[in-house]
Design a protein that fits this description.
Blueprint: H1 2-14, H2 22-26, E1 38-41, E2 46-49, H3 56-74, E3 81-84, H4 88-94, E4 108-110, E5 115-117, H5 119-123, H6 127-143, H7 153-165, H8 172-175, H9 177-184, H10 205-223, H11 225-231, H12 236-240, H13 244-259
Parallel strand pairs: 2-3, 3-5
Antiparallel strand pairs: 1-2, 4-5
The protein binds zinc ion (ZN).
Zinc ion is lined by residues 15, 17, 136, 140, 157, 160.
Amino acid sequence: MSVPQGRRAVLAGMLALIGAGPAAAAAPIPAAPWPGAVVLRGRDSVVVAHRAAAGLLEDLAARAERARRRIAGIWGPVRPVVLLPETDAEAAVLAGASGPGATAGMAALATADRVVVLPSGYARLSEVGRDVVITHELVHVATGATRGGRVPTWLSEGFADYVGYAGTGLDTRTVAAELAAEVRAGVLPEGLPGPADFAPGAPRLAQAYEEAWLACRYVAERFGERALVRLYGGDAETVLGLTAAELTAGWRDYLRRVLA
Ligand SMILES: [Zn+2]
């Protein structure tokens, strides 16, 4: 019980998007943000670390490359820039967060053009959890996340998880354990989660991510993955031929089907 719940709590808490404002967009990619930083430049990626343990830089570079390939196969090209600070406080500063409290419980986050790893949260993740998180955050970089609020939060977060979990082979009811428990108890969410449902400390934060992930899976399974990609920046009526109410109803049926 404690293993999947603990893993999900860390996953859910870390998947928020912070600091993707205009300031972050304008910031240059730091070649060496700290004195003595180690920079690993691959053909398609850059990983910068501050006093990282031996092997961690190479490990992160390999994950960034796997994430890049997974994203290229579904969405399109992205060039990963991943920063691994020495402390969570450094990470919060690099991410432009308001303070370490704003990033509590997270393992990585995305700015407009890079992924910043939070060392303590990242260290608590499983191997597959690390891949999911790096991929999730890199998807935000590739897609422009909510594009200033023009893309619904459920679609931005759900699509990042859709790509993040693609090919991991993880069981749906395990990944969406919290939501599955509610559905099995006969409680279905009324509507797709909104921005407030993804706020740090929201009471059903884990469920919000699970709802968003399964909304994207529903679209991909019923209409095809290309339709899901087109929905990003489009609208359900034009892309899927569904009203918002029909999309919600189809998604709720899908939740009952895959989680009950
Ligand atoms: Zn996210």
